[in-house]
Amino acid sequence: MKGICILGSTGSIGVSTLDVLARHPDRYRVVALSANGNVDRLFEQCRAYRPRYAAVIRAEAAACLRERLMAAGLGGIEVLAGPEALEQIASLPEVDSVMAAIVGAAGLLPTLAAARAGKDVLLANKEALVMSGPLFMAEVARSGARLLPIDSEHNAVFQCMPAAYRAGSRAVGVRRILLTASGGPFLHTPLAELETVTPEQAVAHPNWVMGRKISVDSATMMNKGLEVIEACLLFNAKPDDVQVVVHRQSVIHSMVDYVDGTVLAQMGTPDMRIPIAHALAWPDRFESGAESLDLFAVRQLNFERPDLARFPCLRLAYEAVGAGGTAPAILNAANETAVAAFLDRRLAFTGIPRVIEHCMARVAPNAADAIESVLQADAETRKVAQKYIDDLRV
Ligand SMILES: NC(=O)c1ccc[n+]([C@@H]2O[C@H](COP(=O)([O-])OP(=O)(O)OC[C@H]3O[C@@H](n4cnc5c(N)ncnc54)[C@H](OP(=O)(O)O)[C@@H]3O)[C@@H](O)[C@H]2O)c1
């Protein structure tokens, strides 16, 4: 029986993870859960899964959760508060696996703590890896942690790769990694209409139900840009070896093209419980609860090139990974600030790439040789991005 900690248990990935775990009580014991401020959902999860620890960010939320747990006769669950509590639960000795499912930069330090502690790190929180890149991978190598990708694309690539891929994707005969992208809700929207699209339209993804931030990232295709950077790091690949393919049906989750002309693809219904169950059971397989794929209902698979004029965020992500150092952290911080402003109706949808381009021109990248340099680039970029957004409004 393995012990698991779920960072971000109240989010879309966290809820799907608990759904899969509920099918396999003989394989995993839930040791710790965490949320930002959604005390109602965390309380319900504590009641259903009886973790040893529950962590939230603010002290008031912790007090409220503690009171409700006591009233429900669940006073044995220890409630922790503050960002450092997340690092603590991610490195507990009784935890074997950590599902990193916090959204954005807030997940960096706890995910890094899990890697440093040598856990099995089930990585959904792509922003943590994009920000800290080689530093994160060095910690994984040093501690012997196992990194299992949860993003459906990277999980697909992982399934199509030979075991020796860490030596470099070219070294194992890979010509290209083909990352598929649905194209999001605005793939065919007239360009002139993008200026006025609303947050409600942007989060209405055609194939996947996800948290709000990643849904907007899918609409701008920054999600695919972050995934290109993630693929370079996870599979030791060059940016030129990672190609994005728009595939509207979201049935092929990604492919690996080998030098002998073989292309391996991983397919399935668009349901995140599939990659989650794959990583939880790996190297075995167990039931995820997802429907099996009905190819007769799918009938056809289509592919097209991404349009970089429509999706400038994808181009900016390739530029950031090419620049290296703290450039991906700058890209990520500018994007997080811009997406938050868009969701708050303080910035137009088309303003998102403008903010990122501005920050990439203004904030000089440095070597990402220490976590402090990454955090400093993140903080500086957020200030520059916020000022630019505020100036656009006057
Ligand atoms: N959803 C998907 O299908 C999908 C697919 C692939 C990859 N991912 C990646 O997985 C990650 C999670 O995505 P999601 O869609 O599950 O997001 P989500 O639904 O928005 O959930 C985010 C989780 O993080 C917590 N959180 C938010 N801000 C926090 C903070 N400052 N400190 C601590 N915890 C915080 C939230 O707590 P509260 O509920 O209390 O706010 C929630 O538990 C993202 O990096 C995303 O890119 C998601």
From TrEMBL:
Encoding gene, per UniProt annotation: dxr
HAMAP family, alphabetized: DXP_reductoisom (MF_00183)
InterPro entries named among the record's database cross-references: DXP_reductoisomerase (IPR003821), DXP_reductoisomerase_C (IPR013644), DXP_reductoisomerase_N (IPR013512), DXPR_C (IPR026877), DXPR_C_sf (IPR036169), NAD(P)-bd_dom_sf (IPR036291)
Matches recorded under Gene3D superfamilies: 1.10.1740.10, NAD(P)-binding Rossmann-like Domain
Native species: Methylococcus capsulatus
Cofactor(s) of this protein: Mg(2+); Mn(2+)
Domain named 1-deoxy-D-xylulose 5-phosphate reductoisomerase N-terminal: residues: 4-133
Pathway field: Isoprenoid biosynthesis; isopentenyl diphosphate biosynthesis via DXP pathway; isopentenyl diphosphate from 1-deoxy-D-xylulose 5-phosphate: step 1/6
Lineage: Bacteria, Pseudomonadati, Pseudomonadota, Gammaproteobacteria, Methylococcales
The reaction(s) this protein catalyses: 2-C-methyl-D-erythritol 4-phosphate + NADP(+) = 1-deoxy-D-xylulose 5-phosphate + NADPH + H(+)
EC number: 1.1.1.267
Chain residues that bind 1-deoxy-D-xylulose 5-phosphate: 126, 152-153, 182, 205, 218, 223-224, 227
Positions with a binding annotation for NADPH: 10-13, 38, 125, 127, 211
Domain DXP reductoisomerase C-terminal: 267-383
Keyword annotations from UniProtKB, A to Z: Isoprene biosynthesis, Magnesium, Manganese, Metal-binding, NADP, Oxidoreductase
1-deoxy-D-xylulose 5-phosphate reductoisomerase C-terminal domain mapped to chain residues: 147-235
Protein name, entry field: 1-deoxy-D-xylulose 5-phosphate reductoisomerase
